[in-house]
């Protein structure tokens, strides 16, 4: 009979890859965590982690198999606790939302503030990061990202499409060679991503759209690219939901250079059963739908639900 307490220790070590980090999260001594892991491996007669001074604790093949079952047990325990205690059905509690950096900062955060105003007893954490958040590692309860998850016990929906265009400042366009067609862009410089650090191939639009473009400044951050474009020295492909809200930027070849991508929203299927998650899910879906024109670059103002 597996001890659930030992599995909690196992999950934290698997997620943090460090005994000391797991101990801090669990509020115990690191020696306690090490002892629990050794006892669990002895009980199962299996090596669950490869231990290394450099890489920390990495799951073995058996460890990966156990992780799937342990995570399912964890979700069932949390759901049972919340539903049986009434917490899960109350309009209170806490949720963490992970999203891509630009969407998280310029769309999600204003909408989250509006949500919290309507439901003041539900507290939110917002994680706008230039990478994918991991629901399996409990980094977030809800994720909004540019790729649909390929597997996992998730409820997933396509949240929206969004548009990107080429932008520059009026000053840049006045001081540089005129742009009337795409071939004119060979005379100009660009801002883009650091290719080898892209967290998704869906971000490789500058290379796909303008393979001969001369990129003079690169960043892993779309917000950094946006601020670089505002300096008026180069052009940048930016999401319309960022650039269209700023009159200091204007689209270039607006009808010719248009890129469409999608956002997906998903959460663990057990969390989706909680009332506060269902309310947040529905609110985000309706709020983003209301801002379809902003996401498409057809207006530059955020709109809120009545």
Order of helices and strands: HHHEEHEHEEEHEHEHEHEEHH
Count every beta strand, where a strand is a DSSP E run of 2 or more residues.
Answer: 11
What structural class do you assign from the helix and strand content?
alpha/beta
- Unreliable spans: none
Beta-strand percent range = 15-25%
Distance between the termini: 53 Å
Helix content: 25-40%
How much is the average pLDDT? 90
Overall, the morphology is: globular
> Which value, in Å, is the CA radius of gyration?
23 Å
What does the largest sheet look like? 9 strands, mixed
| Number of helical stretches of at least 4 residues | 11
How would you portray this structure in words?
Helix 1 (4-16) packs across helix 2, helix 2 crosses helix 3 (30-44) and helix 5 (101-118) packs across helix 10. This protein has eleven helices and eleven strands. It has 306 residues and is α/β, with parallel strands linked by helices.
Core attributes:
306 residues, alpha/beta, 9-stranded mixed sheet, 11 helices, 11 strands, globular
Summed up, what is this model?
Helix content is 40%, strand content 23%. The chain has eleven helices and eleven strands. The chain has helices at residues 4-16, 19-26, 30-44, 61-85, 101-118, 170-175, 205-209, 222-229, 240-243, 275-290, 292-295; strands spanning 49-52, 56-59, 93-100, 122-129, 142-145, 154-168, 189-192, 214-218, 235-239, 250-252, 258-268.
Helix-strand blueprint:
Elements lengths: L3 H13 L2 H8 L3 H15 L4 E4 L3 E4 L1 H25 L7 E8 H18 L3 E8 L12 E4 L8 E15 L1 H6 L13 E4 L12 H5 L4 E5 L3 H8 L5 E5 H4 L6 E3 L5 E11 L6 H16 L1 H4 L11
Parallel strand pairs: 3-4, 3-5, 7-8, 7-9
Antiparallel strand pairs: 1-2, 5-11, 6-9, 6-10, 6-11
Helix pairs in contact: 1-2, 1-3, 1-4, 2-3, 5-10
């Amino acid at each position: 009979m597996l001890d659930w307490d030992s599995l909690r220790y196992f999950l934290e070590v698997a997620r943090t890859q460090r005994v000391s980090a797991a101990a801090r999260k669990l509020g115990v001594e690191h020696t306690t965590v090490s002892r629990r892991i050794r006892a669990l491996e002895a009980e199962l007669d299996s090596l669950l982690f490869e231990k290394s001074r450099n890489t920390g604790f990495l799951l073995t093949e058996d460890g990966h198999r156990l992780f799937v079952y342990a995570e399912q047990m964890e979700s069932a325990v949390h759901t049972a606790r919340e539903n049986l205690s009434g917490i899960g059905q109350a309009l209170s509690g806490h949720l963490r939302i992970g999203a891509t950096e630009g969407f998280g900062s310029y769309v999600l955060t204003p909408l989250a503030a509006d949500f919290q105003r309507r439901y003041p007893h539900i507290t939110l954490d917002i994680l706008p990061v230039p990478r994918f958040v991991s629901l399996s590692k409990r980094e977030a309860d809800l994720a909004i990202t540019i790729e649909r998850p390929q597997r996992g016990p998730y409820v997933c929906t396509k949240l929206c499409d969004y548009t990107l265009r080429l932008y520059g400042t009026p000053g840049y366009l006045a001081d540089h060679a005129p742009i009337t067609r795409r071939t004119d862009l060979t005379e100009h410089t660009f801002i883009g991503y650091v290719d080898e650090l892209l967290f998704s191939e869906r971000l490789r639009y500058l290379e796909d759209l303008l393979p001969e473009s001369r990129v003079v400044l690169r960043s892993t951050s779309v917000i950094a690219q946006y601020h670089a474009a505002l300096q008026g020295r180069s052009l940048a492909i930016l999401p319309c939901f960022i650039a269209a809200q700023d009159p200091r930027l204007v689209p270039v070849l607006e009808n010719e250079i248009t890129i469409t991508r999608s956002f997906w929203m998903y959460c663990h299927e057990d969390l989706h059963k909680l009332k506060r998650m269902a309310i947040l899910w529905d609110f985000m879906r309706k709020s983003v739908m209301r801002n379809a024109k902003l996401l498409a670059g057809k207006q530059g103002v955020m709109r809120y639900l009545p």
